[in-house]
């Protein structure tokens, strides 16, 4: 197995044991980037010289943790001192970050090596990342807005990556590219130095090959930062899930409504089969009713559109021509929203949080599809369901992920197979606030019963 094919945990163990050096690992990943980038376009920029220097420095000292010498990609909303944060937009031409974001600084302190900044849908305002190709089928969308991050990990062009998630933007591309994506509890990972889309919905989290890898990255990211007003001051937790696969006593909620409505038959079959595996491992399945489903879309868009437009108010009025058409239209539409609309969305969110808190007292985790369909073809704008209903692609992809952003609860996407076209399918696990350890335990237990997943066969 070549170094770029190793999971984070496996690479860390090889480095700790002296069987692999950071230089060998980083060189392998950089070679892989050179091989696959012409097909994928996952990166805005590749920081090869910087990475090789950091790898040499990591190799000269004793490893001090599992991220030591591990190559990473950062979504290009995340500031790194001296580097551009373009947000994949012409609006940011010539920009340079003056200081590291909190998450970049923490990962660097843990020994991780930046190999590049990954593409996002412009300012994270979309669910397809159109400039990046799906790792499994280059004619299909990568998913967004952390599409570059997910594609880099899925193809071996990064050992792990960070994304951001405002309505599903970590979990959607993770599901569509066959990797693991974790949206933590709102406020658990500081967002200082990360370009905002919608400050009351934004989260930062890892995209990795395995659930164990996600836990290792999460441990390096958490901790209070007073520069982020939403940052939580909570005790440190070791999120590593261990090796046990016994889920006896774990109550897994299986939605009777909403999460399996207007879902592709192959996606539903794969997710229900994975839920059955959880039952085989000892979990008790509990049928649940998802509350307030008729308000989910209006609440998500009512919060996100208003906050995004407020963030971009100056530039969308002075240089609207620098935005891509799809993003500019959304930002201009946000100027038509009233304060009353925004306040109604906030009230709906408060009620939704209360109802979900009641629901999560009945179960330990909820298992459902991450997205209702696999990756659509590039340029495809709508999905027609079997009953004739037509749904916009962006609405379809955000539909099942948005509740976790509105309520702030943690959510984990885990690969559970492929459809007949070879496209990845993801299962979403949702849990209680600060319940990441429970999600990771369940996801890891499922993962350990499955064959080791191969990288996408890019080239």
TrEMBL record:
Name this polypeptide is given: Amidase
Coiled-coil boundaries: none
GO molecular function (one): catalytic activity
The keyword ATP-binding is assigned to this record: no
Pfam families: Amidase
Keywords: Plasmid
Residue ranges of every copy of the Amidase domain listed in the record: 24-440
């Amino acid at each position: 197995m070549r170094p770029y094919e190793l999971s984070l945990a496996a690479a860390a163990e090889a480095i700790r044991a002296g069987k692999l050096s950071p230089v060998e690992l980083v060189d392998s990943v950089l070679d892989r980037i050179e091989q696959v980038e012409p097909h994928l376009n996952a990166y805005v920029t590749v920081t090869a010289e910087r990475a090789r220097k950091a790898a040499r420095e990591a190799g000269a000292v004793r490893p001090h943790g599992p991220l030591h010498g591990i190559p990473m990609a950062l979504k290009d909303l995340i500031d790194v001192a001296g580097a551009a944060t373009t947000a994949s937009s012409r609006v940011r031409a010539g920009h340079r970050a003056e200081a590291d974001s909190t998450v970049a600084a923490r990962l660097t302190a843990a020994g991780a090596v930046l190999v590049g900044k990954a593409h996002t849908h412009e300012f994270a305002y979309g669910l397809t990342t159109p400039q990046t190709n799906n790792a499994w089928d280059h004619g299909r969308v990568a998913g967004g807005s952390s599409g570059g991050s997910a594609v880099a990990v899925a193809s071996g062009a990064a050992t792990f990556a960070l994304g951001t998630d405002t309505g599903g933007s970590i979990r959607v591309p993770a599901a569509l590219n066959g990797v693991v994506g974790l949206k933590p509890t709102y406020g658990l990972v500081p967002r200082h130095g990360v370009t905002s889309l919608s400050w009351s919905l934004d989260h930062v989290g890892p995209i990795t090959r395995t659930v164990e890898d996600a836990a290792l990255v999460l441990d390096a990211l958490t901790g209070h930062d007073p520069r982020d007003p939403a940052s939580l001051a909570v005790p440190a937790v070791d999120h590593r899930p261990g090796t046990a696969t016994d889920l006896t006593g774990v109550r897994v909620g299986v939605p009777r409504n909403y999460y399996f409505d207007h879902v592709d038959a192959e996606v539903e079959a794969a997710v229900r089969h994975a839920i059955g595996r959880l039952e085989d491992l000892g979990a008790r399945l509990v049928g649940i009713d998802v509350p307030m489903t008729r308000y989910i879309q209006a609440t998500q868009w009512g919060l996100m559109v208003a906050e995004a437009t407020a963030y971009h108010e100056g530039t969308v009025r002075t240089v609207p021509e620098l935005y891509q058409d799809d993003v500019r239209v959304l930002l201009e539409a946000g100027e038509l929203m009233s304060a009353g609309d925004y306040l109604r969305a906030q009230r709906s969110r408060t009620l939704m949080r209360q109802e979900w808190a009641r629901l999560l007292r009945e179960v330990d985790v909820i298992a459902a599809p991450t997205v209702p369909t696999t990756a659509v073809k590039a340029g495809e704008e709508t999905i027609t369901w079997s009953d004739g209903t037509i749904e916009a692609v962006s609405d379809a992809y955000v539909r099942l992920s948005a509740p976790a952003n509105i309520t702030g609860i943690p959510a984990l996407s885990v690969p559970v197979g492929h459809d007949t076209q070879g496209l990845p399918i993801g299962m979403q696990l949702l849990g209680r606030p600060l319940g990441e350890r429970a999600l990771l335990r369940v996801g890891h237990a499922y993962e350990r019963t499955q064959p080791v997943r191969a990288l996408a066969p890019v080239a």
